[in-house]
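In this section we walk through a basic example: taking a raw amino acid sequence and producing a predicted 3D structure, encoded as discrete structure tokens. The instruction is simple. Fold the sequence below.
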Amino acid sequence: MEFSNKVVIVTGAANGIGRGVAHAYAEAGANVVLADVDLETGNQTTEEIRNRGGDVLFIKTDVRKEEDVIRLVNQTKQTFGKIDILINNAGKGVFKFPLELTIEEWDDVIHTNLRSVFLCSREVAKYMRENESGGAIVNIASTRALMSEPNSEAYAASKGGIVAITHALAASLSEERITVNAISPGWIHNGDDSQLTAIDHEQHFSKRVGKPSDIARACLYLTNPENDFVTGINLVVDGGMTRKMIYEE
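The resulting token sequence is shown next.
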């Protein structure tokens, strides 16, 4: 898919899924803005993309803070003249027994994962509505919005909220010609494949654990202007893992 002359903001772009998504858009010809609180790794990812010929800008951003998000969006507009695509990927998790989870830890996860989606989407939409073709927003949720392991309350609540705010934003921004969709990744491995076992792969209908590139391709699909009939959905990209029936024998 071709994204020449498109301007894309990716939050949480320094590592993992966000890094993979940023690389994918740069390779497709887009102007990519990396937003992350991690200055060192953000600069490293920026150099990686630039060395491959990508047009990239890194803006240190704490997505929990309204003033940081406003600065991110305004600086992107000033630099590139427009904003076409937003990938709300920034996220974190705290996995603790709920009776031991502090309210500060709860708030940190909710603000990083969910509040940021609202803040970034609100500010970006102010500029997307000026575009003749509108824009596209993709929110990275999780299959943990649909199922849980113990001690995942804050993370699950934030990701469930992302799924819900996605269809709400799709409804509210439809008159502005802005599509809003979510992607719920399953098991996405960011490290050395040798760390994975045969059992890890066999848990999936796909017979393999996912990669950041799997989520990146889903982002490219959902933000392609030709696919503007797709909005308000939660696309589960998990190798079929959440559809696999498991019996203890």
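Looking at the output, two observations stand out. The chain has a mean pLDDT of 95. The chain is about 40% helix and 15% strand. In the next section we compare this with other chains.
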